[in-house]
Amino acid sequence: MDFTGVLWTVLGAALILLMLADVFYTLLYPHGSGPAGRAIMRGFWLLARKLPGRGSAVAAPLAMASVIAVWATLATVGWALLYLPHLQGGFVYGAGVPQQADFTEALYVSMVTLSTVGFGEIVAANPVLRLVSALEAVTGFGLLTATVSWILQTYPALNRRRALAHQLNLFREAAGPEGLEAMEPRHAAGLLESLASNVATVSIDLVAFRETYYFREVEQRGSLPATVAYAQQLASQAEQSDSRELQFAGRMLHTALDGLADVLRGKFGHAGETSSDVFDSYELHHRHRRAEEAGT
Fold first, then answer.
1. Cα 286 to the chain's mean position, in Å?
2. pTM exceeding 0.85
3. How many whole angstroms separate alpha carbon 187 and alpha carbon 180?
4. Which CATH number does the domain 3-147 belong to among 3.30.40.230, 1.10.287.70, 3.30.56.10, 3.40.50.1000?
5. How far out from the chain centre does Cα 217 lie?
């Protein structure tokens, strides 16, 4: 193998390793995301903030599709570069198949192998290349499975966030302007403890599935950025209550909200010394006004 062949091999291996690292940190590592995936999601998010109306709501799904496409492209091109120096001598061609030792043919071999289609008109003859082809096929199958699992994990996390927002809105509508004073303290304490548990779950979801942050809700009713401030009001009201049980529930909710604010501050760059400041920034970035401000 000449110097050019070595160069293509090193470059191809680097692209494959980049793809594997990005998939690992995005799908398997519980507290991070891959560099390529993170850059794509953030790029689409910044673009979405400039789009009017409902157009911004499709940015995150498109970003996820783009991340998957980038993974497939890195894998396909990476393995094509590994095959390129070995065309034509390292492969056996079927009858009538034109032999062209160029990147297009290497790319075709890589795509057929990665997708596990295996037409069989071009087959690796070198034992090492045969192992490489088998490894690519296994990687392709694993990549398909991983992307499906990613999608299946992302949307339940989004549903939990929407459910929390709906729960807060239902609480506000049922309690009315009196808030917690409209309920029996023991009942109110139980509801606040349930809210605290749900807030903690959403915080964990944002850490484990960072891409969910970039999904913007079209309807304000299902938007946590638009309703989280009400949870703070409930926590403050509970802490000022004469009921010790309600005070404890208020402190529990406040602690859960502070944890959510820490995630938003540390993982997504929302500035603010207090949790209220962080939530104001969170609300602003998702372009939702609070319900109290909607009529002004």
1. 16
2. no
3. 10
4. 1.10.287.70
5. 15
* pLDDT score of 205: 94
How far is it, in rounded angstroms, from Cα 236 to Cα 257? 11
Is it the case that residue 136 has pLDDT exceeding 50?
Answer: yes
pLDDT band at 287; cut points 50, 70, 90:
low
CA 31, CA 52: separation in Å to the nearest integer? 32
More confident residue, 144 or 98: 144
Yes or no: say if 122 and 90 are a contact pair by the CB < 8 Å rule. no
Tokens of 49: 């903030």
Q: Distance between CA 75 and CA 77 in Å, rounded?
A: 6
**Cα–Cα–Cα angle for 265, 219, 58, rounded to 5 degrees:** 75
What does the pLDDT read at residue 229?
A: 92
Inform me whether the pLDDT recorded for 134 exceeds 80.
yes
Q: For the chain, which residues make up each domain, given as ranges?
A: 3-147, 148-294
> From start to end of the chain, where are the E strands?
91-93, 122-124
Q: Which two tokens stand for residue 271?
A: 């500035």
> Rounded distance, CA 107 to CA 195, Å?
52
> Any idea which residue has 């909607």 for tokens?
294
Give me the mean pLDDT over the 177-200 stretch: 90
Rounded CA-CA distance 151/192 in Å is 31
**pLDDT on residue 193:** 95
Three-point CA angle 276, 282, 287, nearest 5°: 125
d(CA 18, CA 24): 10
Please give the pLDDT value at position 288.
52
CA separation for the pair 235, 188 (Å, rounded): 11
Given a cut of 70, whether residue 183 has pLDDT beyond it is yes
Q: Rg of the Cα trace of the chain?
A: 26
